[in-house]
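Fold this sequence, please.
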Amino acid sequence: MRLRGFLLILVMTLPLLTASPSFTPHAAAADACVGDVEPIIWNETMHRSALVPFEGMYYYDDIMVAEAFGEPSRDKDEGDIDDGWGGDEGSYDPVLHPEDPWMYNPVWPLPTLEPLTTNHYSTMEIGNDSVGILRMNLSSEQRTTFCITLQSSDENITAPIEGDVYLFTTTQYQRYQEHYSASHSNYYWYDTLDVPLSDIPPEWRSWQSWTPYRDVHAYERSSSTTFSLSLDGPEVYDSLFEGAQWEDFYLVVDAWDNSRQSDAPVSDGVTVADITIITTPRTVILPPWTVSLAFFAILAVAGVAPFLVNKRYMGAGLETNEANGAQVPTLEQEAVN
């Protein structure tokens, strides 16, 4: 009886014990930053790109917007940088912006990447008020660990610097890219982008602003970041009009002042990001529906357990006990004549 009651109490309190905070995963992730790395085969294993303030990401869109508002459109001047004039004019400085033109002028369509199953190391230089991006195809059969260290570079002198690291899917990165481009555009009319994220209800943030993967993979104001990711399955976005679309992942090193209140300010220099990516094969991969089944079983046991305990309690002492089959002797005495 006592053993059964103890087991029922243990099952009822098990969800509370498993929900308690633990620092073990962080320690495991830190240990997983060491491994044999292989050279990156660019545009096959990973794809490198950048967002810079002086490059108009939507040059032709700006022309159409100008014409739509009745403003005179102009051609590209000789002093403009590359193919666009939507960015901040005069913000280009070769010392503060080491990115190559192919990083912020990608060739479309973007190359299809192989699933990431090997370890890699890369160094990115992110200019002032810019963004460094690594695009990759994460595998659901691998546990991927990201280790990022940020340093400032000034005349070959490096020092730790605080920055922001985000992980996006393709759809989430597109919203982030639109926010960056609109914030650095001459035709900046997106007033909602200036609203602090804390002032937007959580259920509306994905509609009015950009959010990181699973709403948690945002590592801000940090010079060293380590985190791990295990996918339940292939990341596929179901669109009402375009159907199912494959989602890549974007590791973003943010060196500009975005709309989040908790992000780091502009670095006012070049940020060097040392990135190590370690993949580990997963031994046990359960289908996603097992999570719902496990929580349903826990809730079912938690709901039935009080009734079982009450039934055992109410039935205690009602059983007829006999000692070795002998009846209890009576105290009645025969009458004496």
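The first helix runs from residue 2 to 18. Residues 15-30, 57-87, 189-193 have pLDDT under 50 and may be disordered.
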